[in-house]
Amino acid sequence: MRRLVAPVAVLTGALVLAGCGSGDSKAELSVSGAYMPQPVSDSMAAGFLTVTNKGGTKDELTSVTSDVGDVTAHETVGSSMREVKDIDVPAHGRLVFKSGGSHLMFENLKRKPKQGEKVTVKLHFAESGTVTVEIPVKSATYNPTTGH
User: How many degrees, rounded to 5, is the angle at CA 53 between CA 51 and CA 57?
Assistant: First the structure.
């Protein structure tokens, strides 16, 4: 019986410690690199940004709203784009909206944003709630040094 006590105590201690440091911390979201090229159309525009999750749990972007018009998330596959409803932000990962790839699509613009202005968007996440972002409007030919 004495031989079993030590291994059982070690196993119990290991399980308790594993529960304390399981890495299942909640999502910790931040947004960087946001910009909108000045739209050339009166009714449509695109937006780009990066959502970083430093937490141990994934989150999900469920919708985007803005005071300038309707906003949807799109992904580009090959030469076509399609609307995406929910997009994962992986634990310890990033969701990147970049030119030529996934992006925010602004439609039915109430006003045409001009270079130097800022457009307010609200990113709605399943777990983290709403994150408000001020997106600066850049020149129509803006090419960020970050590559997105």
Answer: 135
What tens digit of pLDDT does each residue of 10-66 get? Answer: 434 443 344 444 456 899 999 999 999 999 999 999 999 999 999 999 999 999 999
In eight-state DSSP terms, residue 38 is P
Alpha-carbon span 89 to 23, nearest angstrom? 16
Contacts of 56 (CB under 8 A, 6+ apart): 22, 23, 24, 25, 26, 91, 92
Amino acid letter, residue 7: P
Rg over CA atoms, the chain: 21
Contact 87, 61 (CB under 8 A): yes
List, in order, residues 6 or more apart from 63 with CB less than 8 Å away.
Answer: 124
CA 123 – CA 30 distance, rounded (Å):
11
Q: Which residues fall within 8 angstroms of residue 125, CB to CB, at 6 or more apart? A: 27, 29, 59, 60, 61, 62, 89, 131
